[in-house]
Amino acid sequence: MDWGEIYDHLTTDPNNDDAWSALLARARGWARTRLATTDSWVIDEVAGDACSAAILKLSLARSRDSFATFVYGYFQNACRAYLRYRDDQTRRTSLDELEVPAPSSYDPDEGHLSAIKRCLDTLPPRERQAVVMRYFDEASPSEIGAVLGVNDNYARRIVFNGLQRVRACVVGGVRSRTATAP
């Protein structure tokens, strides 16, 4: 399937499995070339993120002739995000050169829990359901996709968008509380 056919199928039906597979295969090809020294899961994640982002903004694509370039822009953004994440991981410091493990149990205070709950309640219903399924019910992207009626990649994107909104809401709420404190 060429780029124009992928574009035509996705504009008609964003959940078209054949078009998604073709789009993902092309993005994986770019990722294998660009991220050759990384693990295969990174290649899959970068390709999936790029495709999901492009599909979410498909209405901004100008035409079937420029669709490949449109998707490639989102691929570049996904690569930059991964490389930034990887660089952040390598810059982390350790205590006495020993990695400090995450706490075995997270015990947030009541204020933090109420902020998270408040922020979850502000999400659109579909994003709220996806975030709750992923982080509270430990559902996989395919399980979330089955419930929401979308493919795995789109389910990942819905979870990602919801989580970003919750984080921004919690951070914004914390900042506003500390700004008003004496």
Description:
The chain is mostly helical. It contains eight helices and no strands.
Q: Nutshell version of this structure?
A:
With 182 residues, this protein is mostly helical. It has two domains: 89 residues, Rna Polymerase Sigma Factor, Chain: A, CATH 1.10.1740; 71 residues, Arc Repressor Mutant, subunit A, CATH 1.10.10.
Total strand count, please? Answer: 0
Secondary-structure element order, as H and E? HHHHHHHH
**Helix-residue proportion:** over 70%
Instruction: Provide the low-confidence segments as ranges.
Output: 93-102, 176-182
Task: Please name the CATH architecture of the largest domain.
Answer: Orthogonal Bundle
Silhouette = globular
* CATH domain fold name of the largest domain: Rna Polymerase Sigma Factor, Chain: A
The gyration radius over C-alpha positions equals 19 Å
Oligomeric assembly: single chain
Largest sheet: none
Number of domains: 2
Helix vs. strand class: mainly alpha
Distance between the termini: 63 Å
Topology:
Blueprint lengths: L2 H10 L4 H18 L5 H17 L10 H25 L18 H12 L3 H11 L5 H8 L3 H29 L2
Structural descriptors:
182 residues, mainly alpha, Rna Polymerase Sigma Factor, Chain: A, Arc Repressor Mutant, subunit A, disordered C terminus
